[in-house]
Write a structure and sequence with these properties.
The complex is a heterodimer of chains A (183) and B (200). Chain A is of the alpha/beta class. In chain A, 42% of the residues lie in helices and 19% in strands. Chain A has one domain (16-175): Rossmann fold. Chain A is built from 8 helices and 6 strands. In chain A, strands 2-1-3-4-6-5 form a 6-stranded parallel β-sheet, sandwiched between helices. In chain B, strand 7, helix 7 (146-154) and strand 8 (160-165) form a beta-alpha-beta unit. Classes of the chains: A alpha/beta (183), B alpha/beta (200). The A-B interface holds A 28, 30-31, 54, 56-60, 62-78, 92-93, 95-96, 98-102, 160-161 and B 25, 27, 47, 50-67, 70, 84, 86-87, 89-90, 93-94, 180-181, 183-184, 187-188, 191-192, 196, 199-200.
């Protein structure tokens, strides 16, 4: 991670990004779609290196909701990776999951959540859970590194076992907040 | 196939595109394309969208990537395509050979009172698709061009993008099933067999 980058990537020694990758394999996820976030950078690298996973980089997160619908029609399980700000881009499109009863698991890295430096991240970061729940999504938070894998596991299971949108919010407490040396 | 305006009749165009469709799966963008595909014969491999404006092309991509040997057609309107216009970039990068997008362009929002869309003022969707990286495109205005359009949908040399300029007149409403779970799961069963409704 570039020291001058605004987003904060997890510590390179953190185990949870690889644990999420292992869960994607365990659940036979075949399509991963995303708008990149630094918090997911290690997981994205793992997915890109896997020839059995089709990675689709989106221009906006709502495309990912539609892509998960299409993947399911064709028998592929898919997940959407995004930052909390991207949740706002998905609101109306989440209706697809309810219209069709389509499984749509989302793994969201939080900004504006815990020790945020950037004022622009605060409004959507603090509305993320409310917005998802307003659209009928089952939302679970992971605020310690140890919580991430079991929460993601539950999120994927509930999506595909009960046919609805589900989300894990990976707290900024897990990822860390960059402060631009302004501590 | 021409309306009195001299433009293509949307329903006759749809009938020609879906004739002898074989394994073709069709995603229809919300509004008139859904009534069109239903009017020419409801089908298990049809997914008419009741909502999710802007989703049609990306649903097509997800399906095309999951079923890479099956032709997938996204049949949608100009307003719906404009709302999901970024998906042209996403799709052009992924280059699914089996995915075709055909925009029935009447230059109006047909379901809301026939307000004009951007294409009425010269916005060129084919140029936008080319700019995104689509190398196979067509701009169709005449009945004699329709057989080549139908052939391109089945050719498997995509991603393919076309605009067909159509008459703006509304047609008789022919509604598909409104329960989206039925629409989704009948297509899944048609593609995946009975396993689709059992635990994966």
């Amino acid at each position: 991670m570039d020291a001058d980058a605004i987003d904060k990537a997890p510590d390179a020694a953190a185990a949870w990004p690889d644990q999420i990758y292992d869960l994607l394999k365990k659940h036979e996820i075949r399509q991963v779609c995303l708008v990149p976030d630094a918090g997911h950078s290690q997981l994205i690298k793992r997915c890109l290196a896997d020839n059995e996973i089709i990675v689709t980089t989106l221009t906006t997160e709502e495309e990912g909701i539609a892509l998960m619908q299409g993947a399911w029609l064709g028998g592929h399980k898919a997940v959407l990776l995004m930052q909390s700000s991207g949740v706002g881009n998905c609101i109306n499109m989440l209706s697809l999951s309810h219209i069709h009863r389509c499984p749509m698991p989302m793994l969201v890295t939080m900004r504006g959540d815990f020790g945020e430096f950037n004022p622009a991240q605060i409004p959507m970061g603090n509305a993320t859970q409310a917005v998802l729940e307003a659209m009928g999504t089952l939302v679970k938070r992971a605020d310690t590194p140890e919580d991430v894998a079991p929460t993601v596991d539950a999120t994927i299971r509930m999506a595909f076992n009960t046919f609805r949108p589900t989300a894990t919010l990976i707290g900024q407490r897990v990822i860390g907040a960059k402060t631009f040396g302004k501590d | 196939m021409l309306a009195e305006s001299g433009k293509l009749d949307r329903r006759e165009l749809t009938r020609a595109l879906l004739a002898d469709r074989g394994e073709l799966a069709v995603i229809a963008g919300l509004g008139a394309p859904c009534w069109d595909i239903t009017a020419v014969g409801d089908h298990k491999l049809n997914l008419p969208l009741w909502g999710g404006m802007g989703a049609a092309a990306m649903i097509g991509l997800g399906l095309a990537q999951a079923q890479p040997t099956r032709p997938v057609l996204v049949l949608t309107g100009d307003g719906e395509m404009l709302m999901g216009i970024g998906s042209l970039a996403t799709i052009a990068v992924k280059k699914p050979k089996n995915l075709s997008i055909v925009v029935q362009d009447n230059e109006h929002y047909g379901e809301t009172g026939m307000q004009e869309t951007a294409t009425k003022y010269g916005v060129d969707l084919v140029a936008m698709a080319k700019g995104a990286g689509f190398t196979k495109t067509m701009f169709v205005t005449k009945p004699e061009e329709v057989p080549a359009l139908r052939a391109a949908i089945h050719a498997g040399e995509g991603p393919f993008f076309a605009v067909a300029k159509i008459d703006a007149g509304s047609k008789k409403l022919v509604l598909p099933p409104r329960d989206g779970s039925i629409i989704q799961n009948r297509m899944r069963e048609a593609i995946l067999g009975e396993a689709a409704v059992h635990q994966l």
